[in-house]
Amino acid sequence: MSTGKPHKSRKANFPAVSGEVTKLINALRVKGTRSVCFFNNKGGVGKTTLVANLAAQLSLVWGLKILVVDADPQCNLTQYVLSDEDFIETYRDSDAIKSIFSVIHPLSIGKGYSATLPVRKIPSFGFDVVIGDPRLALKEDLLAQDWRDAKSGGTRGLRTTFVFSDLIKKATNYDIVFFDMGPSLGAINRSVLLAANHFVVPMSIDIFSIWAIKNIGDALKIWQRDLDNGLKLAEDPSELPKVTTGSRPSFLGYVTQQHKERLEKDGTRIVEAYNAISKTIPEQVKQNLNHLSIKNSDPHLGDIKHLASLAPKSQTLHTPMITVTLKGSYTGLRKQARTLYQNIGTHFLKNLVAGAR
């Protein structure tokens, strides 16, 4: 486990870790490594930005040891955290890449689980990463086909389904494992969600995000039911990672991405529609995810404000928003980002500790 001291590579002077956060970190470490998916089957909700910057807050500022797994074949998180030079050099030779593909490929050719994790350090963000790989999409069919076998208790199907459970099992030297995921309810994401302890839903304030809440709740019910049946029928449980029937990821909460204010032709602001949708989110969450929610917790982890050009500049510089060192308007925006991620991070840790089993 990590020491709890802020990461040595940080580029800015952060405030001392509060007593509240210190207590939460100590309580979390008693529980052991936790795994958290960030998922929404709707795209464009700021998921990757949230994952990278929340992980940076936890690692750079608060000293937690974080592993981020880029499980999205689009590799947006990998492009965010690697410098342009590192990115080009890394992907120059596809046969030499140590990535998420390296985790699942040995299993697909009958060699069993990968012996080690292909971990890469990202000093600018303070965390380690298993980089993404577009070839992961080629394994979607494998996971889909073996899921049918898993539901009937087949050893091969269950072992394939639990490939990400094995990854988490190998990451016990981390405090938290984050998964950045693509926007789909496909076979890859099913395996990730069924492996994780918890999930967070990043949202934009629109009707499709509301629909996505229901989709996630419905899908998880079906997947967990089918997996439980498969485990009960398992041909050889000793060949599987330690997973029990009835275990399911708990819902840690949601984060909303605020839209940039727009003006009608007459100059009035378009806010009524957003406000109306925003007010329906708590009830939709209660209706569709309450059975997975943590008791006596507030699932609304926070709102991501529109921070003008700070997010795209952060991506261009391959550095967290809280460490963008440019002057001018960026000074104020960076200060806002630090407050924002400190608040979201604190709420996240509260729910994580409360939901740890």
Verbal overview:
Residues 34-231 form the AAA domain. InterPro entries: AAA_dom, DNA_Partitioning_ATPase, P-loop_NTPase. This is AAA domain-containing protein. The chain has one domain: Rossmann fold (3-Layer(aba) Sandwich). Helix 10 (207-232) links the parallel strand 6 (198-204) and strand 7. Mean pLDDT is 90; it is low at 1-11. It starts with 18 loop residues before the first helix and ends with a helix. The chain is built from 13 helices and eight strands. It is α/β, with parallel strands linked by helices and 357 residues long. Strands 3-4-2-5-1-6-7-8 form an eight-stranded mixed β-sheet, with helices on both faces. The protein is globular, with a radius of gyration of 20 Å.
Outline the fold blueprint:
Layout: H1 19-31, E1 34-38, H2 47-61, E2 66-71, H3 76-81, H4 84-90, H5 100-108, E3 120-122, E4 127-130, H6 140-151, H7 155-161, H8 163-169, E5 176-181, H9 187-195, E6 198-204, H10 207-232, E7 250-257, H11 272-289, E8 300-304, H12 310-317, H13 329-355
Parallel strand pairs: 1-5, 1-6, 2-4, 2-5, 6-7, 7-8
Antiparallel strand pairs: 3-4
Helix pairs in contact: 1-13, 2-13, 6-7, 8-9, 10-11
Key structural traits:
357 residues, alpha/beta, Rossmann fold, globular, disordered N terminus
How can the largest sheet be summarized?
A: 8 strands, mixed
Q: What percent of the residues sit in helical stretches (DSSP H or I)? A: 40-55%
* General form: globular
Rg: 20 Å
> Beta-strand percentage?
5-15%
The CATH architecture can be given as 3-Layer(aba) Sandwich
Assembly classification: single chain
Uncertain segments? 1-11
Count of separate structural domains: 1
Strand order of the largest sheet: 3-4-2-5-1-6-7-8
- What is the number of helices? 13
Number of strands: 8
Organism: Solimonas fluminis
Pfam families: AAA_31
Protein name: AAA domain-containing protein
Domain AAA: 34-231
